[in-house]
Every structure is written in structure tokens, then in C-alpha cells.
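Example for reference:
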Amino acid sequence: MTRVVALFALAILVVACGIPLDSGPEVVQVEINPLPDVEPQAQGELAAVSVFLVRNDLLVEASRELPSPPSLTSIFGSLLDGVTEQEREENLRTSIPPGTEMISVTEDGSVLLVDLNSEFASVGGEEEILAVAQIVLTASRIEGVDLVTFQLEGVPTDVPVADGALSVDPVGFDDYSDLVSDGSE
């Protein structure tokens, strides 16, 4: 009798486990609906931004493609990365010292506060004026930004304007407009 109970239990177990008892495979009809047309995602789109670089000791506006929408961090990160190979072939360079890093960049109304590491202070003279001008003129191309103030590692700092005078006030495009190339060089 225990043998009959064991076989009966085994039969129930086999059926309960879902093992089919069909003699062969069955064809199952499945209806597949096509996917609706979907607009491409904005991911991967690029936006043109302006940065200012140096050629023949004058500032030249160059266009770069950054992920859209470009953030302040990505715009200035791109500028601080230096020139691209194509820009180098066009005789463009940067006066911003290698190793300069953005600690933060924030907007306060129409004034942009740019905080850089101390490496930015490693340049002086005409190169310092051009480096500051690159940042200020690049900022001037950002909608709503009129002026820039600078900090070095959180400490407010004065910066030279085009004529070499130091300014503790926020600076803008007009302070460096004499350094912008008119395109005739």
C-alpha cells in the first residue's frame, strides 16, 4: 500500500510542477503590435557655445559643441581644458595656465562668480590679462551674464583689465573689448 501512495504522490508532484503531459509541441499565436512612432530623445544633442581663445595676442571667438543644454560648469570646463587639435591648427592658444581648475561657478543675477584654484595665479603680465579676458568674454556670451567677479580658492581677488590696471569691481566685456580681434589679422 505504501508503494501505491508513493506512486500517487509522485504523480501529483509531476503534475503540480507544471510538466506538460502533451504528446508534442503546440503552436501558440501571439499578436505583436508595432511600436508607436517616438520622437528622438534630446540625449546626445549638442549645442554650440562660444569661448574666447588667443591668436597673435588678441582674443578670438571660437565655437564648440557641448551636450545640450550646456551648463556653466561644462562651458568653463571646456575653456579650461585648453585648445582642441583643430583650434591649434588654426593657430589658436590659451593663456589660462595648465592645471587651472574651476572650483565653482555661480550666477547672482547678471553677475557670474568664478572661483578658480590657485594655479590660475601662476601667470602674470600680458598673459594674465589675456587669461582673465578669456573667462570674462566667454561669460559675456552666456545669456543674462553681464559681469564677472573672481575668487581664488574662495578668496575674492582683483584682476587686471585690458590696460593692466587692477579692478576689485566686477568686470565685463567692455573692460577687454580692445583685446578682441577684428578678424583682419
